[in-house]
Amino acid sequence: MSFSSPASLLEVDLRPDRPPVLQVDPPADPAGWAAGHRQALRAQVTEHGALLVRGLGVRDKEQVRAVFAALTDDLMTEREAFAPRTPYGDGLYSSTAWPDNQPMCMHHELSYAQRVPGLMLFACLTAPDEGGATGVADAEEVLRALPAELRERFEREGWLLTRSYNDEIGASLAESFGSDDRETVENYCRAHGIDFSWRPDGTLRTRQRRPAVVRHPVTGRPCWFNQIAFLNQWTLAPEVREYLVDEYGEDGLPFNTRFGDGGEIGEDVVELLNTVYERHTRREPWQAGDLMLVDNIRTAHSREPFTGEREVLVALAEPCVPAERRAQEGERR
């Protein structure tokens, strides 16, 4: 494979415990540099699943916006968020609002949606004092590492996400659907394969079954692609889970996951999934000015607890509908 970019661009530092890192000399124009090296950068993401570019030196939102636009032509508007973000316009967002002292466990962004981002873009403006890395894990390797019986059940049944929207925990209706108008929300749910019901107090409950394993649209290789562990009640800190169950009941949790046939996913299964993820996690502490590109199908990502200020900007890009998702929609019809 040949590239028009300098050969030095391909000198990516590969270590087993961290994502591939490309060290560059700070360019005068980060967006111009990104545009000129777009082909080579994207090739590295295709090969490795993720790439951290260090030394780019992005300093503010406008620079990040320009760099992201230089790397992809198809930024997404987020829908069905499970927690709020601050939108900055043109597909640029803050990282998800989540307690600093709680981890965001490994997941694939919007893996429960009909249209999923094929690419995630991250840029660090302020690095935390400690922690806060965006870890990555190869979804092909994770799938191979799972016990055969469990893997086969999820391949056969898929997984079920249940959500209960309220005004206190998680994203609001407007943040998730772009509107809190009932008819608009219902039309969205019908169009995107989401079962819904309104409770007497006016709040919304939804259920959506999704494939747990999908084939990568480029390589065709199967990937463990879901948020089964992250959005399950047993991944929550014990005190948080107890509070939510006391406040809303197990059927009213803001989000929870089940086997595709509706069966409960036990704490042991969630612990196993998170243990497998941890064995395959690669992490590198953020530095201000860093850029990270992540293939959202091939690679799961996480956010570790941190102290101090942390500002990481995010974009979701290149939406696609996995073939397994299209087949599932055909079954519904």
From TrEMBL:
UniProt-listed SUPFAM superfamilies: Clavaminate synthase-like
Q: Name one Pfam family in it.
A: TauD
Q: Where is the TauD/TfdA-like domain?
A: 29-314
Question: What Gene3D superfamilies does the database record attribute to this sequence?
Answer: Clavaminate synthase-like
Cofactors: Fe(2+)
Q: Name one GO molecular function term.
A: dioxygenase activity
Q: Which domain of life is it from?
A: Bacteria
Instruction: Name the keywords, alphabetized.
Output: Antibiotic biosynthesis, Dioxygenase, Iron, Oxidoreductase
Q: What is this protein called?
A: TauD/TfdA family dioxygenase
